[in-house]
């Protein structure tokens, strides 16, 4: 006997994850509710084009779109290249340019789950000041560094506000990409001491700033930074879709001057 296709159950899972009815999905995917119903019951096999339309309608990331294609019996479409692949050379040049242009202020390149891929000298200076030198080649996860009790938390005076906002973003990532890896990251972060209570505590209200700053303090030195996050436009590769560039900017003259001083010293 032929094994039942996993496609129907995966389609139902994604539709419910996006909180859509069959009719709503049908309208976005330009087909009938009856067709969606037949696909979910396994009474109709989807065409390759239909899988693409469903992936678009459900906003399924490339990695999981490949999974849905394979569940329907089709070959995956989206490649996942190593960041050092020759084909990604123009992107690497662009990333290098962005990191250099951000000097003397910090900037990093991370993947979907906040694993550090690249950092500029401003980042190295900030990390060295806060936690000391890091072993070259060491694997660093910025989410763990922010949320764990013994890395950045002791020096981040508004850690509660920052981590609450950050974890809401990780929750959104887990809901959006549907991968077990992002869900596991979220659970790991929530398991750190004191984090779940932070997430359920009442929000104190606006800080009065147009953006949420990160206030660091160590040995009488204070730093105030805010961040921006950029992604690559129209990615055609899984690796590129999952890249983020986070840049840090000073909130005051004292912070700006300190980073310029560190640049001179290095």
Q: Would you write up a description of this structure?
A:
By secondary structure, this protein is of the alpha+beta class. It has helices at residues 7-17, 22-28, 33-41, 48-57, 62-71, 89-102, 121-131, 142-147, 159-177, 180-190, 195-200, 238-241, 253-265; strands at 107-110, 116-119, 214-218, 221-230, 244-250. The protein has a five-stranded antiparallel beta sheet, sandwiched between helices. The model has no long low-confidence stretch (mean pLDDT 93).
Question: What layout of secondary structure does this protein have?
Answer:
Blueprint: H1 7-17, H2 22-28, H3 33-41, H4 48-57, H5 62-71, H6 89-102, E1 107-110, E2 116-119, H7 121-131, H8 142-147, H9 159-177, H10 180-190, H11 195-200, E3 214-218, E4 221-230, H12 238-241, E5 244-250, H13 253-265
Antiparallel strand pairs: 1-2, 1-5, 3-4, 4-5
Helix pairs in contact: 2-3, 9-10
Keywords:
266 residues; 434 Repressor (Amino-terminal Domain); Beta-Lactamase; 2 domains; 5-stranded antiparallel beta sheet; 11% strand
CATH topology of the largest domain: Beta-Lactamase
pLDDT average, as an integer?
93
CATH level 1 class label of the largest domain: Alpha Beta
Largest sheet: 5 strands, antiparallel
- Ranges where pLDDT stays below 50 over 5 or more residues in a row are none
Q: Overall 3D geometry?
A: elongated
Total of DSSP H or I helical runs spanning 4+ residues: 13
Q: List the domain count as a whole number.
A: 2
What class would the helix/strand composition place it in?
A: alpha+beta
| Helix content class | 40-55%
SSE string, helix = H, strand = E? Answer: HHHHHHEEHHHHHEEHEH
Measured between the Cα atoms of the first and last residue, the distance is: 69 Å
Strand content: 5-15%
The CATH architecture assignment of the largest domain turns out to be 2-Layer Sandwich
What topology, given as strand order, has the largest sheet? 2-1-5-4-3
What is the count of β-strands?
A: 5
Radius of gyration: 22 Å
């Amino acid at each position: 006997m032929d094994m039942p296709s996993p496609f129907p159950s995966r389609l139902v899972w994604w539709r419910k994850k996006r909180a859509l009815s069959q009719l709503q999905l049908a309208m976005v995917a330009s087909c009938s509710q009856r067709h969606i119903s037949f696909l979910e019951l396994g009474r109709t096999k989807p065409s390759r084009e239909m899988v693409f339309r469903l992936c678009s309608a459900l906003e399924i990331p490339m990695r999981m779109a490949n999974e849905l294609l394979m569940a329907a019996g089709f070959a995956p479409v989206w490649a996942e290249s190593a960041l050092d692949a020759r084909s990604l050379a123009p992107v690497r040049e662009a990333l290098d340019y962005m990191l250099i242009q951000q000097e003397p202020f910090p900037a990093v390149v991370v993947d979907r789950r906040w694993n550090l891929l690249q950092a500029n000298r401003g980042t190295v200076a900030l990390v060295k000041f806060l936690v000391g030198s890091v072993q070259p080649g060491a694997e660093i996860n910025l989410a763990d560094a922010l949320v764990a009790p013994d890395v950045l938390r002791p020096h981040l005076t508004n850690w509660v506000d920052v981590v609450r906002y950050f974890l809401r973003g990780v929750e959104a990532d887990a809901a959006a990409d549907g991968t077990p890896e992002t869900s596991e990251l979220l659970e790991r972060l929530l398991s750190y001491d004191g984090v779940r209570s932070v997430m359920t505590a009442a929000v104190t209200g606006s800080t009065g700033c147009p953006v949420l700053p990160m206030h660091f303090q160590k040995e009488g030195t204070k730093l105030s930074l805010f961040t921006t996050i950029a992604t690559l436009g129209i990615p055609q590769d899984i690796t590129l879709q999952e890249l983020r560039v986070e840049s840090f900017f000073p909130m005051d003259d004292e912070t700006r001057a300190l980073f310029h001083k560190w640049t001179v010293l290095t």
